[in-house]
């Protein structure tokens, strides 16, 4: 299978999608996005393999090597790096201890992305873990608005960045309701001391509206696609 081959031949790599501060359009950070890259350059995306990986006997090794890789990248790049942490990994104390260690070694440079579903399950344990992460790293809620969570949950949780799902960003152009929803999330986040990040920004018009709303960060194909490590070096070099 693809997964077995990837493990055997060490074909896992990260691409990086930058996100930008809307205030000055500087690079604010990089989201690490997992791929399997075959020898001939063919890329496979998480939708093709992540569920298999999560439920495979390879998960433990994979987690360990991705943390080692992340350590190397945190040393190399001057901007923060976000890691998507699955519910499965989040529930693994051994993995989380290693992640805390990494955060401690690079204060202010790691962002831990979790999905909002995690926030509504096992709330007490989640709160405890997030509080510990936040001593040295930021916590971002991915795909906000798509699951069961609500502003009421958000209010309770130790979270730094709310990532507004791209469905609403896309919808903003046609739907007054989507636009209102995005505006409310941005406003609410700001009022309670959280930052907001708009995902999936694909047009100049969307960017303009988000700036007007006072959204903190934007990410999306209009600004930058996920890119390999070498391209990130160029991007950060050009920015100076
Ligand atoms: O660009 P893209 O197709 O990579 O991302 C699809 C999904 O895969 C995203 O929702 C993201 O959360 C998930 N994903 C990307 N990289 C990782 C990773 O390193 N670990 C986990 N668990 N999920 C990831
Ligand atoms: O769920 P998560 O946000 O971690 O996944 C990120 C996914 O979103 C990746 O598959 C990435 O390639 C994709 N993505 C990032 N920006 C855009 C965009 O502007 N448009 C679309 N359609 N997908 C995007
Ligand atoms: Mn993400
Ligand atoms: Na997302």
UniProtKB/TrEMBL annotation:
It comes from Hydrogenivirga caldilitoris. This is PAS domain S-box-containing protein/diguanylate cyclase (GGDEF)-like protein. Residues 1-240 form the EAL domain. The chain holds residues 806 to 1045 of 1045 of the full protein.
């Amino acid at each position: 299978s693809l997964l077995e081959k990837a493990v055997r031949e060490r074909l896992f790599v990260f691409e990086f999608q930058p996100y930008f501060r809307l205030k000055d359009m500087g690079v604010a950070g990089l989201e690490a996005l997992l791929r399997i890259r075959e020898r001939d350059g063919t890329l496979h995306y998480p939708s093709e393999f992540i569920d298999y990986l999560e439920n495979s006997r390879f998960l433990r090794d994979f987690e360990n090597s991705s943390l080692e890789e992340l350590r190397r990248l945190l040393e190399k790049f001057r901007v923060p790096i976000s890691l998507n942490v699955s519910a499965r990994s989040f529930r693994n104390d051994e993995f989380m201890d290693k992640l805390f260690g990494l955060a401690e070694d690079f204060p202010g440079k790691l962002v831990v992305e979790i999905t909002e579903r995690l926030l509504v399950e096992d709330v007490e344990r989640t709160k405890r873990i997030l509080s510990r992460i936040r001593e040295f790293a930021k916590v971002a809620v991915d795909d906000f608005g798509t699951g069961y969570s609500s502003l009421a949950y958000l209010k309770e949780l130790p979270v730094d960045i709310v990532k507004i799902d791209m469905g609403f960003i896309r919808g903003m152009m046609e739907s007054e309701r989507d636009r209102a929803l995005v505006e409310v999330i941005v406003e609410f986040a700001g009022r309670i001391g959280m930052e907001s990040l708009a995902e999936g920004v694909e047009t100049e018009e969307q960017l303009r509206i988000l700036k007007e709303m006072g959204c903190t960060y934007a990410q999306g194909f209009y600004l930058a696609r996920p890119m390999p490590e070498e391209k990130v070096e160029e991007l950060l070099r050009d920015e100076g």
